[in-house]
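Sample pair:
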Amino acid sequence: MHLLDTIPLPTLTTRLLWEAVVDIAPREDLGMGPRGARGIVPILGGEFRGGPGMEAFFGTVEPGGADRQLLRPDGAKELDALYEMRLHDGTLLTLHNQVIIDETVQGPRYALSRIHVTAPQGQWDWLNRRLILGSLHSARPQRDAVVIRGWLADASLPG
């Protein structure tokens, strides 16, 4: 028997934590770098709301953040966004959202991320200790914005 056969296989699940509409400025070209074409997209603001069971999690996306972009030689795009979300209770969260976008294959666009949340001590500090996955969609042409959804990842063992 192999060691892998003795360790229970966990069931991975996700739960929608929030949905955000993030207003963005036009992309600014930063020139070619050693890893590919670079750009930056300023974040102008926006709003967010909690998913099911997270109705108390809502507020605004603060202006002043930015999304640094890298178009790699293989056609994939890396986005590295740093911005703040202010909850209705005044709590300020810092989000570091690292996205991979792959539009080089047939089928639906691949645009998923890992979102690292930094929250102050208090009601929302549990977010500091969780893995949050993200999805990214354009809101164009309705609005110069992107829709970012944050999903809580969880694992449970059988039995």
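The chain has a mean pLDDT of 95.
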